[in-house]
Amino acid sequence: MQDFQENSDIFNLLSEGVSEGIIVIDSNQIVVATNTSSEQMFGYEKGELLGKPLDILIPKRYHAGHDAHVEKFIAKSDKRQMGHGRNLYGICKDGKEFPVEAGLNPFEFYGATYVMALVIDITERKNKEEELSHWARIFDESLNEIFVFDTDTFKFLNVNKEAQRNIGYSIEEMFEMTPVDIKPDIDHSKFKELITPLMDDETGKVKFETRHGRKDGTTYPVEVHLQLSNLGDKKVFVAFILDITERKNYTENLEKIVEERTHQLTEALAVEKELNELKTRFLSLVSHEFKTPLSSILTSITLLGKYTQTEQQPKRDKHVSTIKNKVKYLDTILNDFLSVERLESGKVNYKIEEFPLSKIVNEVVYNSNMLLKSGQQIRYPDNIDDLSIQFDEKTLELALSNLIHNAIKYSPEDSIIEINVLTETDHYYIKVIDQGIGIPKAEQKHIFNRYFRAKNALLIQGTGIGLNIAKQHLENLGGSLEFSSTEKAGSIFTLCIPKINTN
């Protein structure tokens, strides 16, 4: 050590002219010479390291392995870079560690063996390497697809793992492809048009939506964020791809829901409007239907008081009959309203029993004969004497009465109302055929709506409740009520009754 120090002038002259740290140790790994760069690098004063063991410059966790490594190196006496392929660290006087790169050069001086270490602080390089490694991991591990491609040939230069996974091509295959090859909706000219603003430096980023085609032939919607970047001295395009399948599905579902809700709201508003119209119509109807018979009753009662003589009895009988008919009509209207309430509340009790069909037909026809206009006739059905039906008797009577009364009401004088009965395997069909005013085609869809009156029937007495009630009762018991009609030519209403009721 002493010999080396006595002849260190030349070493000092040469070593002070380099920026790298230089440390010379003897065979016992004792520091015999340093330059200013190494002293500054490790945080020591000039000459402070001389005579110190090399271990003070190495973190303790590496001491055992390092000593053996240096001894083996001195024994071989070959020039090499220390710790090749491994991370080396130095430690400052204040205990701070930093990464280093060391080149070792053995030499002899006056018969003694020394090793000169050329030490470089690679902290900045390590930081950059770690930063590059960090960004490389972000690139490769990103859950979004990332494509890098050439600005001249458009060929892919790099593609991250997520893009390879989703699109199905290997990195080797993609090196031979361009963005146009994976965009079935965009050709080369369209793609050049999209990237022109970037190439002309008119914008920093281009964003658009398209579809990507996978290797298996399927496609998926994507949002593309495209920008220019540098790869060394070369300009490249970097495309960040968002798979927007879920967003598209959500948007489509949301649009569908909005459309459905809008449709429902429109229907609800239409129903509300219809209900308001029905309410207005109902109030007008009730006012008219009650006022007319009540006026007749009041008039008849007033006149009755004037006919006091015995010979005026026929006149009294006529007015009494009028009063009875009008009271009966009002009773029918009230029963209809009550029937509506019972249907809505579900308080209807049906009694299913077997009875002759002719019984109901006879009763309905008998009562209807008193309502016939001049010259009108009811044609009775043939061959029903042996037919028995299993149903609710009151429901059938109500429905059939309603149809025949309507046929009489809406048919002219001297016309025929015909009743036909057809028998099939599972059902009876009772048809009521008239030659009346018929129902306008545009209004036929409303005929079973409660309180509805066709325009050509507004001047004819009626509530618009009967058909609605009859249809609901029949359907509750597994039957149905259908019709066909031609304006000014008549109507055919058909009662369908199941032969064996299962309700």
How would you portray this structure in words?
The chain is α+β, with helices and mostly antiparallel strands. It has four domains: 2-127, PAS domain (Beta-Lactamase), CATH 3.30.450; 142-243, Beta-Lactamase; 248-339, Signal transduction histidine kinase, dimerisation/phosphotransfer (DHp) domain (Helix Hairpins, Orthogonal Bundle); 348-498, Histidine kinase-like ATPase, C-terminal domain (Heat Shock Protein 90), CATH 3.30.565. Helices cover 42% and strands 25% of the residues. The protein has helices at residues 2-6, 9-15, 36-42, 63-76, 123-141, 161-167, 171-174, 188-199, 245-304, 313-345, 357-369, 393-409, 466-476; strands at 21-26, 31-34, 80-82, 88-91, 97-109, 112-121, 145-150, 156-159, 206-213, 219-231, 234-243, 352-356, 377-379, 388-392, 416-423, 427-433, 480-486, 490-498. Strands 1, 2, 3, 4, 5 and 6 form a six-stranded antiparallel β-sheet that branches. α11 (357-369) runs parallel beside α12. It is rod-shaped and about 170 Å long. The termini are far apart.
Summarize the structure.
This protein has helices at residues 2-6, 9-15, 36-42, 63-76, 123-141, 161-167, 171-174, 188-199, 245-304, 313-345, 357-369, 393-409, 466-476, and strands at 21-26, 31-34, 80-82, 88-91, 97-109, 112-121, 145-150, 156-159, 206-213, 219-231, 234-243, 352-356, 377-379, 388-392, 416-423, 427-433, 480-486, 490-498. By secondary structure, it is an alpha+beta fold. It folds into 4 domains: 2-127, PAS domain (Beta-Lactamase, 2-Layer Sandwich), CATH 3.30.450.20; 142-243, Beta-Lactamase; 248-339, Signal transduction histidine kinase, dimerisation/phosphotransfer (DHp) domain (Helix Hairpins); 348-498, Histidine kinase-like ATPase, C-terminal domain (Heat Shock Protein 90, 2-Layer Sandwich).
